[in-house]
Amino acid sequence: MNGSKSTMNKIAESPFFTFSRPALDFIEKAKLFKIAFVLVCIAMAVVNIVFPFVILARVISSGYFNFGVKYVLAFILTWLAVIAACWLGFHLWWDRRKKSTEIGSSEFIVTPFFAEILRTFGEWLGIMLGIIGAIGGLFALIFLGRYSGGMLSATLLGMGFGGLPGSGILSIIFSAAVILGPLAGFFIIFVSRFFAEQIRVFAAIANNTKKEK
């Protein structure tokens, strides 16, 4: 009987049955999700570095600088606001990648990672809207007046210029960016952190419940 049991154990521990164990352990111990989280943070950090130069290249190729000095000044100052926002965004994502070690220690793996991504993305988007809206929107409004919304929407969303910026719905909305930007940014940060905290609360309750059992 013991010999039969020993033979079965040897068979079960043979390479045929254990070759997938490292891959399964890799997933089970949250290493896969830690790597994915770090890669997302690094990718978003790179996007923040590249984004201002994508805007600059698109605006240069569009012929926007032919519109006149005030348009050029409005864009340059707005672009500097974009650089400032993206620089903060870069640091946010770059520093947040270190959280993978802390949140990966939870009993429930995916939930904390999702909560951290949700929180970080909300904070990043709120920072972008707040800074670009307040500073970029102010400079655009000072130099371009009623055309400020058209310039901002064309620059940030790639709408295309096609002559002087127009007065469509997006242009009208962007004209109030100096006010709407910070308000929208604050609201997004608040909502994203709220839902991220609720997700963490559920995960913490589940962890404690499992430990008590």
What does this 3D model show about the protein?
With 213 residues, the chain is mainly alpha-helical. The protein has one domain (33-212). 83% of the residues lie in helices and 0% in strands. It has ten helices and no strands. It has helices spanning 2-12, 15-18, 21-28, 31-62, 69-96, 99-103, 110-144, 148-157, 169-175, 177-212. Helix 4 packs antiparallel against helix 5 (69-96). The model has no long low-confidence stretch (mean pLDDT 77).
User: How can the largest sheet be summarized?
Assistant: none
Strand-residue proportion? under 5%
Count of distinct strands: 0
Helix content: over 70%
Radius of gyration, taken over Cα atoms and rounded to an integer in Å: 25 Å
Number of helices: 10
Q: What count of domains describes the coordinates?
A: 1
The average pLDDT is 77
Name its key features.
elongated, mainly alpha, 213 residues, single chain
What's a concise summary of this model?
By secondary structure, this protein is mostly helical. The protein has helices spanning 2-12, 15-18, 21-28, 31-62, 69-96, 99-103, 110-144, 148-157, 169-175, 177-212.
Secondary structure topology:
Layout: H1 2-12, H2 15-18, H3 21-28, H4 31-62, H5 69-96, H6 99-103, H7 110-144, H8 148-157, H9 169-175, H10 177-212
Helix pairs in contact: 4-5, 5-7, 5-8, 7-8, 7-10, 8-9
